[in-house]
Amino acid sequence: MKNIFRLLSVLLLCGCIHATAQDSKVNDNYPDQWWVFIPPSELKGWEITPQAADRSKGEVILSKRTELGIFSNLSEAHFEMDGIHYASVEGLWQGMKYPEGPNDERLKDPNVVWPYTREQVYKMSGFESKAAGDAANANMKQLGIKWITYKGKKIEYKTETGKVEHYNIIYRASEQKVLQNPEIKNLLLRTGNLKFLPDHTQQPNPDPAYLYFDIFMKIRSGLSNKAAQ
Fold first, then answer.
1. What is the CATH number of the domain that holds 213?
2. Residue 194: C-alpha distances to residues 3, 139, 153, 224 (Å)
3. Does 149 map to a domain?
4. What's the pTM?
């Protein structure tokens, strides 16, 4: 009988502790939805949930399950850069892998079929653009090339110099995405000083261009500093 009473006491105590933790609110004036709980059974294999961030430490996941998902490279957010229109940053990213013009050496091997034109990929977003990039990766491997092009210039984006060039292109694209879409700019500023975290697992030692969450914090800092002047 004593054991049963002890067990009930433990269960009640756990319940109280759980309730207290759930009921306590962080007074930061941010929407609770940014940290919404997603059941593990609903997760994708690559996904990091909104609740994985420690709100008390000012962390937030740029989850595609919340409005903050607009900061993903995959999200549809139209912008222009250097005279070309893109439907997403991912469309630009993956499009750079495709042949640029009829004389592009990526077209020299007739056995290598490109499923889309570069311009078609520029108009893509979401996982459609990611899939187009996967197809391009296979072609690049078959051709034995490790470079992309932007405005006719080859960029070997796995070299130290290439990493910098690639990063600068993606940073500028992300910045234009913000500046040319007022609702995205306003949302970015609403995040205040929150520390952005990715919604998917990162590879070890990723290239700077892959750190989209860090890029948007830098863009936010620039906007905030400009507003303060």
1. 1.10.357
2. 47, 40, 37, 13
3. yes
4. 0.87
Q: pLDDT 10s digit of each residue in the chain, 229 long?
A: 444 445 444 443 444 333 333 334 677 999 999 999 999 999 999 999 999 999 999 999 999 999 999 999 999 999 999 999 999 999 999 999 999 999 999 999 999 999 999 999 999 999 999 999 999 999 999 999 999 999 999 999 899 999 999 999 999 999 999 999 999 999 999 999 999 999 998 889 999 999 999 999 999 999 988 877 7
3-state secondary structure of 197: strand
Is 47 within the bounds of a domain?
A: no
Q: Is residue 57 situated within a structural domain? A: no
What residue numbers bound the domain in which 104 lies?
Answer: 70-228
> In this structure, is residue 158 part of a structural domain?
yes
Greatest extent of the chain over all pairs of C-alpha atoms, in Å: 86
In total, how many domains does the chain have?
A: 1
